[in-house]
Amino acid sequence: QVELVESGGGLVQAGGSLRLSCAASGSIFSINGMSWYRQAPGKQRELVAAFTSGGSTHYADSVKGRFTISRDNAKNTVYLQMNSLKPEDTAVYYCNAYVRTRTAPMKILTVWGQGTLVTVSS
Question: Of 23, 13, 16, 35, which is closest to residue 93 (Cα–Cα)?
Fold first, then answer.
C-alpha cells in the first residue's frame, strides 16, 4: 500500500505563514501527480494547488500569489508554503497523489492523506 502522511498544520494569526508537507511512502512505482486540497466544515472539498502532468503548477484563484506548491523528488515529498494567510483559509488540508504501485504498476491509484487542520485567526 501507499501512504501519504501530512504535517505542518496548526493555528496562526491572519497574515502569518505556514508550511505543510506530505510524504509518500510504500511500494511506489511512480508518482504521476501530487496536489493539495482543502475542506472547510460544511463545504465541498476544493483544489488548492497542484502539479500538472507537464510539471507546471496550478493554483486556485483564492490562493494565487500567496501559496506555493513545491516538491522534493528524492524524499517523495510535496510541500505547500502558505503566506499571507486569511481566516477564510481555515480548513482541513489534504494531500492527494496519483500513484502506480510496484505490485500493480498498470493501475493508477488515487491516494489521500489523513488531512491536517489549518486554523487562521482574525
Answer: 35
φ/ψ (deg, to 5) at 4: -110, 125
Give 10-residue mean pLDDT values along the chain (122 residues): 95 98 94 94 96 88 97 93 98 96 94 97 95
CA distances (Å), 35 to each of 24, 51, 59, 80, 85, in order? Answer: 12, 6, 10, 9, 19
What is the distance between the terminal CA atoms of the chain, rounded to a whole angstrom?
40
Q: Kindly list the distances between the CA atom of residue 50 and the CA atoms of 2, 8, 15, 103, in Å, as whole numbers in the listed order.
A: 19, 18, 23, 26
